[in-house]
Amino acid sequence: MSLTNLTLKAAIDGLTAREFTSVELTRAHIEAIEAARGLNAYILETPEQALDMAAKSDARRALGEAGPLEGAPLGVKDLFCTNGVRTTACSKILENFVPTYESTVTSQLWRDGAVMLGKLNLDQFAMGSSNETSYFGPVTNPWRAQGSNKALTPGGSSGGSAAAVAADLCLGATATDTGGSIRQPAAFTGTVGIKPTYGRCSRWGVVAFASSLDQAGPIAKTVEDAALLLTSMSGHDPKDSTSLDVPVPDFTQFVGKSVKGLKIGIPKEYRVDNMPAEIEKLWQDGIAWLKEAGCEIVDISLPHTKYALPAYYIVAPAEASSNLARYDGMRYGLREEGANLTEIYENTRASGFGDEVKRRILIGTYVLSAGYYDAYYLKALKVRRRIAEDFDNAWTKCDAILTPTAPSAAFGLGENSNDPIAMYLNDVFTVTTNLAGLPGLSLPAGLDANGLPLGLQIIGKPLDEATVFSVAGAVEKAAGFKAKAEKWW
Length: 489
Ligand code: GLN
Hints:
Layout: H1 8-16, H2 22-35, E1 42-45, H3 47-62, E2 73-77, H4 104-111, E3 115-120, H5 159-166, E4 172-177, H6 183-189, E5 192-195, E6 215-220, H7 223-233, E7 263-267, H8 277-292, E8 296-300, H9 308-323, H10 341-352, H11 355-368, H12 373-394, E9 400-404, H13 420-424, H14 431-436, E10 440-447, E11 453-460, H15 465-479
Parallel strand pairs: 2-3, 7-8, 7-9
Antiparallel strand pairs: 1-3, 4-6, 5-6, 5-10, 9-11, 10-11
Bound molecules: glutamine.
Glutamine binds at residues 126-129, 157, 177-181, 209, 316, 427.
């Protein structure tokens, strides 16, 4: 077994038992990253910094000062600001931006002893579902359909994070989820991803997309690894006014806990047209596994589900158009010259933003404009409220909800890139939790007929990640998903 095949938990155990050092573990990952450049998962490698952090970690361990993630090499989505290390949001407008501060989430990982391997690719400003809107080019999914060498998307926007974890280019990665960007890439790559309750993780130092929806979370190899990472990433931060001042349990304690007697809701509205039979079958498998583990399965209704996607694609662009107004070429980032101030703004934004980002800014500005505000933005906020109420009602009947994560397995690069609506439809099962602020976890539960991974999603009550982890642990155990992408890169 090579050091990069280890789970995060196994690696930490190995470090604790002095079977290898963090420098050795980190070097193995650096070599794996160098050999996998064709995947384009990392857009910036920081090997010197990684080895320096690893050496310091080994020294701390020698002094008996090991933190919970001591010595573990991780990847960071390039949406998290890293002090002195270029942070681009995979845009041209921030192509040369070097922050002078560290995001709260990443600083907590380093506080707990983790090592940074580099910055991971994503859809530009986290807008997309295939990683194809990145200014640095798409990421290729390490998975391929059986007998085919067609390049597939790892999903988006956290495509680099998901691909890097799936290809063993880090032990775990940070990611963000505004409408599904942790969970859909996790489903497409056979990895585990959790978007926690809105407010669990600080948004400070994370490049903003849609502030009322954005949440950070981990992508990892196992449910337990995801719990380990989320425990470190969570916590109150006075620098983010929406950060929740509530205790953070050790989430790992809930993985493996019995789920006997829990009520699991199955929402009938999560059956969409043209959903592959294999996904329906996987969902039924999940139901059977949880029944066997002692859960009670209850049918529930989330009647406003069909309005979630349209509401999301109004609220998210509206907030994005406001958040992205700060990129004006004046204070930081790209500046294109012009004859006057207005022309400088126009030239900078025209050249600095990609097409999808411009589309969002146009939509967002339109739905917020006088005359259309009530018809679109205000209406979408009302729908959002109804969706949250649907979940409130569901919680009177069940403790957690089981659904598929995405309506398909990974699709080909280029397949949906000219059809924004087809691309947006990927988020049909994931946007609801963002609109309602709830935790949602995706874990790999099976393969389709082409040998591609499929994910199941577990949605929990507000701040009840604990139950989500217990249910996910039970599904993981029953599914026995051990498949890995066959190495071709
Ligand atoms: N695919 C969705 C979008 O493009 C979600 C992105 C995300 O969660 N960051 O808006």
